[in-house]
Write a structure and sequence with these properties.
The complex is a heterodimer of chains A (about 450) and B (about 280). Chain A folds into four domains: about 70 residues; about 120 residues, no CATH class; about 200 residues, von Willebrand factor, type A domain (Rossmann fold, 3-Layer(aba) Sandwich), CATH 3.40.50; about 25 residues, no CATH class. Chain A has a six-stranded mixed beta sheet with strand order 5-4-3-6-7-8, with helices on both faces. In chain A, strands 1-2 form a two-stranded antiparallel ribbon. The radius of gyration of chain A is 29 Å and the shape is globular. Helices cover about 55% and strands about 10% of the residues of chain A. Chain B has two domains: about 150 residues, P-loop containing nucleotide triphosphate hydrolases (Rossmann fold); about 80 residues. Chain B is built from 13 helices and nine strands. Chain B is elongated, with a radius of gyration of 23 Å. At the A-B interface, helix 2, helix 3, helix 10 and helix 12 of A face helix 2, helix 5, helix 8, strand 9 and helix 10 of B. Chain B: InterPro entries: AAA+_ATPase, ATPase_dyneun-rel_AAA, CbbQ/NirQ/NorQ/GpvN, ClpA/B, P-loop_NTPase.
Chain lengths: ~450, ~280
């Protein structure tokens, strides 16, 4: 391997580690070995060779791709990067934008893997993405590019061009295709902006900020709509993974007593000598679960996700009952019947359930009310799970009511989606409640999955 | 040497109707060139097992398959002594203690068979995630050195390294140690363009336009929040269904009537019908 290539390889592997990908020494060597047998001029082969040897988890792939595009850029700008104020200052003519938007519309109807698609995105970044910065310098941004071309506003036009008449299945199909292509265009723009920044001010500066965290590490409280949708799609695979792990652990953990009948039966194949003893499996312990979840705006994303997950895992519990509250509390178990559509469940819950009087979270009133109305829900075999940020708008905390509830349940847990340092700031009653019910920080899916595994 | 270049992989797999993208072609090539096992992970029905079969078919190698399941152990995966035969032998001849640990009484299981094979072999370890964690330990030893120690017979080393493909549905994380020894290939759902080509390769009688429409529909369905997204295998089934019904177009009525081929949950079907505006049967 040549010296410059080796340097680049080592730096790239280092950057991957810095971004949180667990790349071992042996895997780095595998990648280096792979480089000696492939055609290095083929960029996509190089990318896949690195991915096959270094990236062993699907959720690390987007971060890997972002870094790969920085370390092995598809193109290099001609000449030294010069501040070109004349270019940047050139006014954009109205019909020029219109022409460019025509071209973009054409590309969006085609195949996004066409090289012309990416080339167009790059040239648009060159045209609109430059923003003068302090000290005769320049910087690059994707926002002005997307604002100038505004691909989202092309959708109606594209639909008209692609369909004879609107509506029905054809429109749904066309919309999927167009929005996928728009997303690809936006990604291409962002990626080229990063490349140009890296060219101007060095890769290291941009590398650290350009890798998005894997979806299971994103804070619940900072989820965007898209991320929430992606997470919801992950509920069932995640539930399946957790269920497998739980069953495996139960099987592995404690074996039961000797099963004489099966042992004798098995000994027949060894001439009556009982070589392999067979053991009876233990009856699994399945707790009853009562979930009390804060459905107010600030933590709704977290509550919904956790509800969906627990209901997807319902086979792991004998019984699941769920209650939602803002400033009063109502039972919502019925909305999550097996086979019910999850989105509908969440919508119906927010619309129909009687959970809000004035719309400001009031934990104290909720606990009192819960103890009055649903005291029978909690018994000696119940695990009580409270989901919420413990922010009660400076209302009375009703610690006694909570203490009684927690006392009657077999276990009680509180999951708080806020980062631990923010507990007890402002109107948060975290420590007061944590003194009664053990409170766990649960900021992302990874922490939630770890908790659920311990619980069941 | 299994393949000369990723392009050759693509060509030879295409000859047996398996369409490889850049990722598949490169990792299949590297697995052969570096002599490392290939771990293919992804949802059910995206062609993981098919990939191993296609590699075997394209290279004319023998395919040996080890299907993993809960409770799979060494005796089922590697080798076992034929106890019954041994007992009979000892009962027949009390002096035979030495003889009963010989080739004659050895039951070969897939892993040992693949290691001892003289001809080119593709070893498919299917659904590795279903097996218990102890099996992974066993695989580690075999996949790194391609040798097995049988106490009574000594160490057996592979004369010709098999081409190993492991598949996993990711129902549980495989151990870091196992992943480290493997090349990793994530097989996800394909782009509509590629899916159209796959459907056409599997069902050549299907009109091209219908295949295109089918691929786009399935891509839209995968965009919805469903319990179980349709897999490639199900898309191909859908294509076969339409062909069997003699349909040349996928309009709303046909779609509503045949949606059960790709969506297997009632709630998924009603969601799709709602989002796409289909009549409910």
């Amino acid at each position: 391997m040549s010296e410059p290539l080796l340097d680049r390889h080592v730096a790239f592997v280092g950057a991957l580690r810095e971004a949180g990908l667990p790349v071992s020494l042996a895997e780095g060597l595998d990648a280096a070995r792979a480089l000696t047998v492939i055609d290095l001029a083929e960029r996509e082969t190089l990318r896949e060779a690195y991915a096959a040897t270094l990236v062993k988890r699907a959720q690390h792939r987007p971060g890997f791709d972002a870094l790969f595009d920085l370390w092995f850029p598809p193109v290099i700008s001609d000449g030294p990067p010069e501040p070109a104020p004349d270019h940047a200052a050139r006014p954009v003519l109205p019909n020029e934008t219109a022409e460019l938007r025509d071209r973009l519309a054409e590309l969006l109807m085609g195949d996004p893997d066409d090289p012309a698609f990416r080339a167009f995105a790059r040239s648009m970044v060159g045209r609109f993405g430059r923003v003068p910065a302090a000290g005769n310098r320049q910087s690059w941004f994707s926002y002005p590019v997307l604002r100038a071309l505004s691909p989202q506003t092309l959708i109606a036009r594209l639909l008209d061009a692609m369909l004879a008449e609107r509506g029905g299945v054809p429109e749904a199909l066309a919309r999927t295709q167009i929005s996928r292509n728009i997303r690809k265009f936006e990604e291409a723009v962002v990626s080229d902006v990063r490349r140009r920044i890296a060219e101007d001010s060095g890769i290291e500066k941009i590398a650290r900020t350009s890798v998005p965290p894997p979806i299971d590490r994103v804070d619940f409280l900072r989820l965007t709509r898209d991320e929430l949708a992606r997470l919801r799609r992950e509920v069932h695979p995640l539930a399946r993974r957790l269920a497998t792990r739980l069953t495996a652990r139960r099987k592995q953990g404690r074996r039961g007593r000797l099963d004489v009948r099966r042992t004798v039966r098995a000994s027949l194949s060894t001439g009556g000598v009982p070589l392999t003893p067979r053991l009876r499996p233990r009856r699994p312990h399945r707790p009853e679960l009562v979930i009390l979840c804060d459905a107010s705006g600030s933590v709704a994303a977290f509550s919904h996700f956790t509800l969906l997950l627990t209901f997807a895992l319902r086979e792991q519990f004998t019984k699941v009952r769920a209650f939602a509250f803002v400033d009063t509390v109502d039972e919502i178990t019925a909305y999550f019947r097996p086979g019910v559509d999850v989105l509908d469940a969440v919508t119906r819950m927010t619309e129909e359930a009687d959970i809000a009087r004035f719309g400001r979270t009031d934990y104290g009133h909720v606990f009192t009310r819960f103890a009055e109305r649903y005291a029978d829900a909690i018994g000696p075999r119940t695990s009580l799970l409270i989901l919420g940020d413990a922010r009660s708008n400076y209302q009375a905390p009703a610690l006694d009511a909570l203490r009684r509830l927690a006392g009657e349940a077999r276990h009680a847990y509180w999951l708080n989606p806020e980062p631990r340092p923010q507990w007890d700031t402002g109107d948060s009653l975290a420590s007061a409640y944590a003194a009664i019910v053990p409170m766990y920080e649960c900021r992302n899916v990874a922490q939630l999955a770890a908790f659920v595994e311990d619980l069941a | 040497m299994w393949f000369a270049s990723p392009d050759e992989v693509r060509g030879r797999l295409a000859a047996v109707d398996y369409l490889a993208d850049d990722g598949i072609a490169t990792s299949v090539f590297l697995a052969g060139a570096l002599g490392k096992p290939l771990l293919a992970e992804g949802p059910a029905g995206v062609g993981k097992t098919q990939l191993a079969k296609a590699v075997a078919q394209a290279t004319g190698a023998r395919l040996i398959r080890l299907q993993c399941y809960e409770g799979l152990d060494e005796a089922r995966a590697l080798y076992e002594w034929n106890y019954k035969k041994q007992l009979l032998r000892i009962q027949a001849d009390g002096e035979a203690w030495e003889d009963i640990f010989s080739e004659e009484f050895l039951l070969e299981r897939p892993l040992l068979k693949a290691i001892r094979s003289d001809e080119p072999t593709v070893l498919l370890i299917d659904e590795t995630d279903k097996a218990d964690v102890e099996v992974e330990g066993l695989l580690l030893e075999i996949l790194s050195d391609f040798q097995v120690t049988i106490p009574e017979l000594g160490t057996i080393t592979a004369t010709r390294r098999p081409y190993v493909v492991l598949t996993s549905n990711a129902t549980r994380e495989l151990s870091e140690a196992l992943k480290r020894r493997c090349l990793y290939l994530h097989l996800g759902y394909p782009t509509p363009e590629r899916e159209r080509d796959i459907v056409l390769a599997q069902v050549p009688e299907l009109p091209g336009l219908l295949a295109e429409r089918l691929a786009r529909t399935v891509a839209t369905l995968r965009g919805l929040e469903l319990k179980k997204s349709p897999s490639i295998a199900e898309t191909v089934d859908w294509a076969r269904t339409l062909l069997a019904l003699g349909r040349t177009d996928l309009d709303e009525g046909v779609m509503a009537a045949t949606l059960g081929v790709v969506l297997k949950h009632d709630s998924d079907q009603s969601r799709a019908a709602k989002e796409l505006g289909l009549p409910r049967p």
